[in-house]
Amino acid sequence: MPLLPLGTQRLGAARGLADWRTYPLAVRTLQEYHQGSTSIRGRTDREPPLRDCRLDTRLGLVVLPNPVFTASGTAGHGHELADHLDPAGLGAVVVKSLHAEPWVGNPAPRVHATPAGMVNSVGLQGPGVEAWLEHDLPGLAATGARVVASIWGRTVEEFARAAELLADAPDVVVAVEINASCPNLEDRRALFAHSSSATTEVVDAAGAAQRPRWAKLSPNTAELPDIAAAAIAAGAEAVTVANTVLGMVIDTETRRPLLGAGRGGLSGPAIRPVAVRAVFDTREALGDFPIIGVGGVASAEDAVQFLLAGATAVQVGTATFADPRAPARILRDLGRWCDRRAVARLDELIGAAHG
């Protein structure tokens, strides 16, 4: 089935995506793939953005030309996007989370579509940092993209090892995103991102990468603002808010969970209000500190909601499974949205909902 050439086929989700009747973006783009009418590439590339608005943004020491990134785990290792959009045109490409060693991931099935998103339990499958540096990064670097390497581990030491392996990465790797939503084997498998002290430890350990650190946090805790503050105190230059919401789908015929690992993480439009609220609360607690908003961004208007809530940038994730050009489309439309409303700089939007 050649319709969805990125992560969808690899994860076995293509069939489910066609049933997202409450996700108009997915349905529309899939129909266009089938019918071959107005191509997505034509819609994205032939209409230049107006761009009177300055979209450049700063996250600590990292200055990027615009605030639209890919989200980790939804665009492979980034170079796969080159057939669908210009990776260098995005603010940054965040690659799939990397362990220090190759990792097999969870048993299939790993993905199941829901009425407004999907539940996944891929299990962080990946080639390991060294293989990624040798085989995947060169292709992505050749596109001119700014790369953010996402890392994970089951212990603080594993985070540190992954970071150490990235220390000699080329300058195209502009930052490291710390996926703190991983089970901590040293604390009864509680998530690092559910504890201020554990988050402090992994952010500190990631300093071995010798480049700016962004901490990706979980929405599944009432302590998110405090945990974000702990990440900052440990040296994070930005926080990514937020990862997937805990979820499960059960097969009514077999009476068993549909995913091979049982539980999973819900992403897509269903979680956008949750993620916007998480960004708003984090901004309220931290003040003017870089926040990257993620969770159900499928349009420029969605991105604007996150910016108004306090995000400095946004990541596009699940939408990319249905439309590989979604990040470029959203960036284009964001420029137009700003121009039509005489927004001269992105700063005019960031945190404006706080009054």
Written account of the structure:
- The structure is a single chain.
- The chain is an alpha/beta fold.
- It has a single domain (7-354), classed as TIM Barrel.
- Helices cover 32% and strands 18% of the residues.
- It is built from 12 helices and 18 strands.
- The chain has helices at 7-11, 14-17, 24-35, 40-45, 129-141, 156-166, 196-205, 224-233, 272-286, 300-309, 319-322, 326-340; strands at 57-59, 62-64, 68-70, 93-94, 111-114, 117-120, 147-151, 173-179, 183-184, 190-191, 213-217, 238-241, 245-247, 250-251, 256-257, 264-267, 291-294, 313-316.
- Strands 3-18-17-12-11-8-7-4 form an 8-stranded parallel β-sheet.
- Strand 14 (250-251) and strand 15 form a beta hairpin.
- Helix 6 (156-166) runs parallel beside helix 7 (196-205).
- The longest helix is centred in the C-terminal third of the chain and has 15 residues, at 272-286.
- The chain is globular and about 50 Å long.
- The N and C termini lie far apart (49 Å).
- Mean pLDDT is 88; it is low at 1-47.
Would you spell out the secondary-structure blueprint of this structure?
Layout: H1 7-11, H2 14-17, H3 24-35, H4 40-45, E1 57-59, E2 62-64, E3 68-70, E4 93-94, E5 111-114, E6 117-120, H5 129-141, E7 147-151, H6 156-166, E8 173-179, E9 183-184, E10 190-191, H7 196-205, E11 213-217, H8 224-233, E12 238-241, E13 245-247, E14 250-251, E15 256-257, E16 264-267, H9 272-286, E17 291-294, H10 300-309, E18 313-316, H11 319-322, H12 326-340
Parallel strand pairs: 3-18, 4-7, 7-8, 8-11, 11-12, 12-17, 17-18
Antiparallel strand pairs: 1-2, 5-6, 6-16, 9-10, 13-16, 14-15
